[in-house]
């Protein structure tokens, strides 16, 4: 946003949300909402799942073909595509020549969490700008600035503890800070920083897996995973959370093995359709590994 | 504004559009053209390094005939440029509009389109003279750029069309992966592989551009460009332009290029290997998180790790092979979109185990 403001002046702040409708070749109707101003348009094409290619094709062409009305400032528009790493390969291919052809009227800014999932042909066409996550110190600083503007006093220790738990994510840190504010004000330096509900829930789930390894427990755990999924917690986040919780309960030797199977099942999860199968398979596998290990150890004792 | 971001100022794309644009409003936008487009080869002779293709194409240009073509090779090696240049020299700028149909992945290319659009275009026979009476080749060209994203059904539909219209139309398919093109199509075309550009040629091209744009640079910087671009001239040029925006009048150094290309500092990689030696899962995990938070991409990390591991002296061949095998698996998984943190941990925990043997 700041970059855009530099380019076009305050005009870009006149935002509007629009619904765009597309029809796929197979006559399916798609709807996607975009945020746009006279100068730019922001879309998250992965919102429409595997039909994203159509959106890319149509949207960019319409934007690119309409020339800037008042071309006093810059003679190109900016299209911001977010979560490019979630685009299908198809859609990424669709971007390739479009980017080159319409360079006169339209520039793309692609945002993604990692370039690993962007095809080389696209990477070759872009200038990569790495945006590092803020350090704990920076987050602490930001939190203090915000609180000052809001007229609150935030003890340094608390700010630091929130930053520690924020996983280096500023949005998360700010939300957590707000939650603390609701909990108790004035702040105290040692007040509890609560994690989001679902994280606690996930931690509990991991504990249950550690406590007992049996088909029955597996069934119970499955219910809990379903609950997380229905609250739209992304499956890879669940996997990562589970892995971290489980690993902290394992011995050195075991850790390697567990990580390997997590890597295996998470990969499967990305390829497959139903996340629950793969998460459950991982849990079952973990139970098996863990149980065998415990039994071996007990046998060694005697 | 930070000069870095000026790299992509208003500019223009294919020469065709450029010409259109300059006619319409002769605004002085010229100086803002991205260099990739500015230095796109205008004639077949300009295309560097792809001698085989160039010589065949030139022969056909003399005889004013073309076979069906299939170009394949990695990004930024001149495929699109070559065919555009060839059709320009065959038909000249004006005729190109009526004689050349360019379809790429951004156009809808299902079966129906192949049937309708290509057929309609191909059906009308082309005369051997231009409207103003000069002789020109009596055929049309259909360019299917980025053909590897066409479904195989659409490709199959193309087969018949290709044969039926062979009198009036030549097809040129372009793709990165030749294995995505179905065999019956591939066998109807003269195949040309576009090689990644050799260092020497990259170097000359870049020097050329530097001279024309009045840029000062250090020799080392060019070396860094060779290394980071991996034979992809477009990438090299983009990096060069960004670097020159970044530095302005100053001369470009190796460090600038690495910074722009997203190469990870050697220290970071060494550190990863060091924590693996510590045989502590917690330490490894902390370091991996650190690297990911810093915004480095996992594929870049494993690429550089690989370079380092192969050279490690204190690891046996057996251990190296185990690690490299895992590396390959991780690479594939990352391509499929698996989680970076989990994959990296899986790789590093194997390394940890192998190193403590
Ligand atoms: N062999 C070459 N000779 C001269 N310039 C080249 C060559 N290869 C690439 N370039 C430069 O790189 C730019 C991009 O090349 P081009 O569009 O032809 O790549 P491509 O092979 O079609 O890539 P992709 O597979 O990504 O479509 C050109 O504008 C030109 O500046
Ligand atoms: Mg191309």
UniProtKB/TrEMBL annotation, chain A:
Q: Where in the cell is it found?
A: Nucleus
Q: What Pfam families does the record tag this protein with?
A: DNA_pol3_delta2, RCF1-5-like_lid, RFC_C
Q: Which family does it belong to?
A: Belongs to the activator 1 small subunits family.
The species this protein belongs to is Pinctada imbricata (Atlantic pearl-oyster)
Q: Its GO CC terms? A: DNA replication factor C complex; nucleus
Q: A GO molecular function for this record?
A: DNA clamp loader activity
UniProt keywords, alphabetically: DNA replication, Nucleus
**An annotated GO BP:** DNA strand elongation involved in DNA replication
Protein's name in the database = Replication factor C subunit 3
Role according to the record: Subunit of the replication factor C (RFC) complex which acts during elongation of primed DNA templates by DNA polymerases delta and epsilon, and is necessary for ATP-dependent loading of proliferating cell nuclear antigen (PCNA) onto primed DNA.
Automatic annotation (TrEMBL), chain B:
Write down the superkingdom of origin. Answer: Eukaryota
This protein's UniProt keywords: ATP-binding, DNA replication, DNA-binding, Nucleotide-binding, Nucleus
Question: Where would you find this protein in the cell?
Answer: Nucleus
| Gene Ontology molecular function, alphabetical | ATP binding; ATP hydrolysis activity; DNA binding; DNA clamp loader activity
**Pfam families according to UniProt:** AAA (PF00004), RCF1-5-like_lid (PF21960), Rep_fac_C (PF08542)
Q: Cite the InterPro entries for this sequence.
A: AAA+_ATPase, ATPase_AAA_core, DNA_pol3_clamp-load_cplx_C, DNA_Rep/Repair_Clamp_Loader, P-loop_NTPase, Rep_factorC_C, RFC_lid
What stretch or stretches form a coiled coil here?
Answer: none
- NCBIfam families tied to this protein: PRK00440.1
Chain intervals with Basic and acidic residues compositional bias: 15-31
Q: What is this protein's name?
A: Replication factor C subunit 2
């Amino acid at each position: 946003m700041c970059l855009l403001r530099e380019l076009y002046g305050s005009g870009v702040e006149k935002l509007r949300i629009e619904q765009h409708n597309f029809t796929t070749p197979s006559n399916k109707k798609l709807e996607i909402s975009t945020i746009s101003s006279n100068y730019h348009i922001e879309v998250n094409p992965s919102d429409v799942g595997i039909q994203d290619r159509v959106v890319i094709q149509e949207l960019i062409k319409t934007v690119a073909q309409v020339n800037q009305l008042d071309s006093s400032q810059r003679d190109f528009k900016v299209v911001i595509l977010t979560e490019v790493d979630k685009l299908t390969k198809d859609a990424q291919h669709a971007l390739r020549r479009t980017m080159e052809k319409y360079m006169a009227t339209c520039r793309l800014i692609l945002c993604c969490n990692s370039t690993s999932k962007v095809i080389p042909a696209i990477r070759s066409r872009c200038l990569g700008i790495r945006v590092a996550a803020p350090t704990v110190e920076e987050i602490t600083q930001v939190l203090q600035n915000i609180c000052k503007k809001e007229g609150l006093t935030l003890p340094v220790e608390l700010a630091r503890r929130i930053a520690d738990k924020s996983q280096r994510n500023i949005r998360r840190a700010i939300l957590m800070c707000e939650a603390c504010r609701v909990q108790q004000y004035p702040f105290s330096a040692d007040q509890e920083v609560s994690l989001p509900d679902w994280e606690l829930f996930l931690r509990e789930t991991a504990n249950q897996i550690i406590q007992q390894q049996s088909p029955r427990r597996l069934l119970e755990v499955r219910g809990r995973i379903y609950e997380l999924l229905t609250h739209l917690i992304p499956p890879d986040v669940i996997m990562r959370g589970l892995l971290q919780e489980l690993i902290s309960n394992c011995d050195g030797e075991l850790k390697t093995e567990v990580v390997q199977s997590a890597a295996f099942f998470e990969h499967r999860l990305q390829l497959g359709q139903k996340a629950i199968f793969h998460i459950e398979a991982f849990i079952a596998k973990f139970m098996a590994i863990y149980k065998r290990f415990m039994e071996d150890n007990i046998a060694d004792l005697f | 504004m930070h000069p870095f971001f000026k790299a992509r100022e208003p500019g223009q794309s294919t020469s065709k559009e450029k010409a259109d644009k300059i006619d319409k409003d002769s605004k002085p936008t010229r100086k803002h053209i991205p260099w990739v487009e500015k230095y796109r080869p205008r004639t077949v002779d300009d295309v560097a390094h792809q001698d085989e293709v160039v010589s065949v194409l030139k022969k056909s240009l003399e005889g004013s005939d073309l076979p069906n073509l299939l170009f394949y090779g990695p990004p930024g090696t001149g495929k699109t440029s070559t065919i555009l240049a060839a059709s320009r020299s065959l038909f000249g700028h004006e005729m190109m509009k009526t004689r050349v149909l360019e379809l790429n992945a951004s156009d809808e290319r299902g079966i129906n389109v192949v049937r309708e659009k290509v057929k309609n275009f191909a059906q009308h026979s082309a005369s051997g003279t231009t409207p103003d009476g000069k002789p020109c080749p009596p055929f049309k060209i259909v360019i299917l750029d980025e053909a590897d994203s066409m479904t195989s059904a659409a490709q199959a539909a193309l087969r018949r069309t290709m044969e039926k219209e062979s009198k009036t139309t030549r097809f040129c398919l372009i793709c990165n992966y030749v294995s995505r093109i179905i065999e019956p199509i591939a066998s109807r075309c003269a195949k040309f592989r576009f090689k990644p550009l050799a260092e020497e040629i990259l170097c000359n091209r870049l020097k050329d551009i530097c001279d024309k744009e009045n840029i000062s640079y250090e020799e080392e910087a060019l070396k860094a460009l060779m290394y980071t671009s991996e034979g992809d001239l477009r990438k090299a040029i983009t990096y060069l332009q960004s670097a020159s925006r970044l530095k302005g009048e100053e001369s470009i150094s190796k460090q600038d290029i690495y910074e722009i290309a997203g190469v990870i500092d050697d220290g970071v990689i060494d550190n990863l290997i060091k924590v693996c030696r510590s045989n502590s899962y917690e330490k490894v995990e902390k370091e991996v998180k650190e690297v990911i938070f810093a915004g480095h991409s996992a594929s870049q990390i494993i690429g550089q790790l690989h370079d380092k591991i192969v050279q490690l002296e204190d690891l046996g061949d057996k251990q190296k092979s185990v690690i490299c095998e895992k590396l390959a698996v991780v690479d594939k998984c990352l391509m499929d979109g698996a989680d970076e943190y989990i994959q990296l941990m899986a790789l590093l925990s194997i390394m940890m185990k192998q190193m403590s043997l």
